[in-house]
Amino acid sequence: MFKMNKAAGKKGVKLCAALLTAVIMITGCSSGSGGSSDGNWVSIEDRYTVDPEKPAWQLDKKEEATDLTWYVNADWWNTDFGKDIVTKKIKEDLNINIKFITGDDTKLNTFFAGGDMPDLLTVFDSNSPVVQKAATWAMPLNDLAEKYDPYFNKVAAADTLNWFQQADGKTYGYPNYSNTQADYDSGNIPAKTAFIIRKDVYEALGSPVMGTPEEFENVMKQIKEKFPTLIPFGFNSIGEGTGSLGDVLQDFIGVPLETENGEFYDRNQDEDYLTWLKTLNKVYRDGNISDDSFADDGTAFEEKVKSGKYATLLMDGTPQQGGNLQIYLSANEGKEYVAIDGPQSTKGNAPTLNQSGITGWMINFISKDAKDPAKAIQIFTYLLSEEGQLLMNYGIEGETYEKNADGTVELLPAVKDLQLHNADKFKKEYRLGEFMFFGHDRHKALSADAFPEAIKQMQEWGKGKLKPHFILENISPNQGTPEARALSAINAKWNSTLVSMVRAKDDASFDNALAAYKSFLGENRWDEILKVRSEKMKQNKEKLGIQ
């Protein structure tokens, strides 16, 4: 999936459980400027008559510009509006002025505690109390569309609306990068995971196969011998999680997503996966995994990617690393990284690579205190439409891009040159690919300019290897429950256990670390967590009509 600032965004803006108190305070009411308990349902009688076949923004005759506030729960969000080519066009077409406000969980909390709500609000954690309690403070998109803009239902995905439906049968939030089954089936969603190897290393070793543990271990030894200055095997920075050695490796070797009877499957204890972890432990003991890889932060990892320090890498988020891979390719033609099959299942399972799921990333709401909810839903419709998607990704036809006869899109030479050679100016003046509240992967397929050259072969390799993980989305216990607290402790324990297993000094140490983890599960409500997850998986299947 193509997202900006993912590391700074998704992990950095998780809504904390402390928000539950603030959300409960507003249950059943919407305090603030002039809103009723059901929202500020303004009249549009003198502005336009709704038409299911035409977006309301094209019909609205309101002359004065509408001023709206939009809160984004991320300090890094670019608050400029109306200065770059993308937001200038949005401002012009919709006749709006948007004042963006940014902050963290504390700032978000103050809105609910103080009652001075913004018109629109964007958060990043679908499991947070703020999202779960949206019916108490946000307006239902279904009703907004019916009253103000029925064309919304033509551009919004029915599966996504159903996915976010709450207990009252209504949907309050709509995300970006929400991929449905149809999106996966289309083949337009590129893989974001790959096992990559430097081309010069691959060719020098005679294009080796490393699908089995034995082959993998042997190739790592060859790399160490022939390329002593390189790190034979690397992976995404561990950080607070498990880097790409956790569920990414599990997906790569096709570990099942559920048990045969449809219950939650503990992928961390899968026999196939543990076999590969033991293999990585042997590779580590041979000196072919660097100790630095367990301590490097994102910046240190990226510097090594830019300089081609790794001979091979299990990489997640190739689009996010596309710039670094491109920097290396540009300076080292013939030595660029290429994707190969790499480690494979010892049981014959095919890869089940994950991509952005139906939950998406940024979830957008219209608050009950919105001054002009008609204009607010028009924004949703506009940005979700093909017109809005093309604008956000590629700008304005004739000014920044041209359409080819086959329907594909190509940036104009001057724009492409600026993108390649003056990224700061490009970002400030054009902002293409950044204003992505309702962005979607499928629109990246319209242009060869959507991704850097460095990752195109990796995406090509990934075709046919994606498998939706819808059934595993949002299945953690609800925040604030004993099971949620226990799961937090278990996740932390697993992160440290995984590192201990890969770095174990011998087989006995490996086995002891795993045994200690299993004991920890038994002491921390694991059986209750399994029940919650299995029940939520069942609910997910019902939502999506999966048998």
What is this entry, summarized?
The protein has 547 residues and is of the alpha/beta class. It is 40% helix and 10% strand.
The tally of beta strands, per DSSP, is 11
Helical content, roughly? 40-55%
Classify the beta-strand content into a percent band.
5-15%
Overall average pLDDT: 91
Distance between the termini: 27 Å
Number of helices: 23
Main beta-sheet strand count, sense and barrel state = 5 strands, mixed
Q: Which shape, going by the Cα principal axes?
A: globular
Rg estimate, integer Å? 25 Å
Structural class: alpha/beta
Strand order of the largest sheet: 2-1-3-9-4
Low-confidence region ranges? 1-36
Protein name: Sugar ABC transporter substrate-binding protein
InterPro entries: Bact_solute-bd_prot1
Organism: Paenibacillus taichungensis
Keywords: Signal
Could you please describe the fold and organization of this structure?
The chain is α/β, with parallel strands linked by helices. The chain is 40% helix and 10% strand. It contains 23 helices and eleven strands. A five-stranded mixed beta sheet has the order 2-1-3-9-4. It is globular, with a radius of gyration of 25 Å. The N terminus is likely disordered.
Task: Provide the descriptors you would attach to this structure in a database record.
four-stranded mixed sheet; alpha/beta; single chain; disordered N terminus; five-stranded mixed sheet; 547 residues; 11 strands
Question: How do the helices and strands line up, and which of them pair or pack?
Answer:
Elements: H1 6-9, H2 19-25, E1 66-72, H3 85-94, E2 96-102, H4 105-114, E3 120-123, H5 129-132, H6 141-148, H7 152-155, H8 158-163, E4 173-175, H9 181-186, E5 193-198, H10 199-204, H11 213-226, E6 231-235, H12 247-252, H13 271-285, H14 298-306, E7 310-316, H15 322-331, E8 337-340, E9 363-366, H16 373-384, H17 386-394, E10 401-403, E11 409-411, H18 413-421, H19 423-429, H20 453-461, H21 482-502, H22 507-522, H23 526-544
Parallel strand pairs: 1-2, 1-3, 6-7
Antiparallel strand pairs: 3-9, 4-9, 5-7, 5-8, 10-11
